[in-house]
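Dear Dr. H.,

I hope your travels went smoothly. While you were away I took the liberty of generating a structure for the chain from your last submission, since the lab meeting agenda had it listed for discussion. I wanted you to have the full record in hand beforehand rather than looking at slides cold. The sequence, exactly as received, is reproduced here:
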Amino acid sequence: MGIQQHTKRQLTGLIILLGIFFLGLLHTLHTSFFVCDDAFISFRYAQNLAEHGQLTYNPGEAVEGFSNFSWTLLLSLMALLQINLSISALILSAVASLITLGTTYLITRDLLRNGTLTPYPVSGTRFTDFIAFSAPIFLILWAPYTTWTAGGLETMCFTALFALSLRATLNKTPVAAGLLWGLTAITRPEGALFVLIAMGWLGADILRSCWKNKTIKTLLPFTDGVAFLVLLTGSLFLFRWYYYGELLPNTYYAKVWGIPSSFLRLHGLSYIHGFIKTYSLVYFVPILTGLAIILPRLKWELSLLLTLTITWFVYILSTGGDFMAMLRFFVPVLPLLALLLACSAGGFFLMVARRTKNLRIPGLVALLLCLSSGGLLLYRSLVFERASIRYEKRQLGMESVRGMVHYVSDRIKVGRELRRIFPSSITHMSMAVGGAGAISYESRIGRAIDTFGLMDKTIARKKVRPGKFYKPGHLKQASWASLRAQKPHILCSPGIATIGFSPPGARHRKRVLAFFNEYDYFCLRLPLSSDDRGRSRTHYCCIRRKTMATPVGALK
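The corresponding predicted structure, in token form, is as follows:
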């Protein structure tokens, strides 16, 4: 009977989690279900690996212009199986979201049982399990989490691995922790920072146990876990050195290296302030005091969670934040914040339970705290989403969701149109672009030149003295002189390409063609996105070499 009850409880929990997951997908559909432009960079690397056996953006040019190694390998498997990469990325991200929700629930449940149920081993279980479900509910109420359940990036995969690694660490299973943290580190470079903290924390606890028990038996599994970790991360560094000739990805140099640290800190601080202000996080401080109540029972666990949370904020501060919509950089830390909120409610549950034998009263207190926290999160998310969905204008220095959706949808159409009007020669042509995503992937252009330096080591290593801040990761750009020297067939780079309701004006043409005198403008007339007034854009214009004939379907 006990086994049947346990199975029934597990089945009920799974059904609840699936219900939370589908509610989260509805929230995702409310914000926007799309694949962002940057995802197509990984798609092109994955496609080239599947088709040509080269993990390169342009065949024959070994430059690591991506920062999601394991995610790109996973996509290359999808490409090898001839599965659409956009659909694959969305499905994989949704699965990762479900894993994150489930893992967050399990971590919260275990922490609450260990921290609040010592006096109430039986009757309190259902209450703490109920409180634990609030953690995944909090997650789906955060607009950043549900927005980036879509997007096609590695964000949700990294978040799922981070959550799984954290659970293995808290459960003190060093082999699983080493393996999972290794996978986390090769999915995103910043994962290595949290690997050092978590494995160091676990190693210190195991050494303390060995010293206390006068045995080294518990140390042996930890060495196995470290071996897995070193094998995974070491293999990546060796491959990177052998294949690309560097220990760090070129994206690090393009986005962080050579930029004054004071400048990055200033805008990282602005990014963090935007997050705190958007979600009115100061109102959660009284609720988080509940952590102090269960801290004596969970010193090791909570100190690790708080250290990882603070480290994540410091990382954002030092790298300058992000330009993508809905505070994308905070997504991996949201499970930590969600479970800390749920544990705080558990702390108040324990405090009230100590003063009454009727557990319904502390359960009601915890429920009210969860409802108030969730209500505030939902309200702030809806306010935040509304402007981002309705208008193209930037928010808090970030792109809006509407702006990102329009950007990528326009460039998908342009890329496909280029492939249509250059059916036989496109694979032998070169093109300079400012966003090396959908245009180059959809056009199947033979060589794409990214003017932001992701695939160019020379541009990536430029030192800059930024003035007015534009986009994090987009401060370095190729000069017009360097672009002209490479003699691309087509230039669709910033300051040259135009998108709007008509061809570029005479003044703009004259300024551009005075420098690129061997080129001339051509325009693609397409049904493109609409601006905030509802006017549909119709023209995307670039320049091409004069020696090239005007392609059929293009306008001079």
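Two observations you may find useful: The longest strand covers residues 519-525. The CA atoms of residues 355 and 362 lie 9 Å apart.

With kind regards,
E. W.
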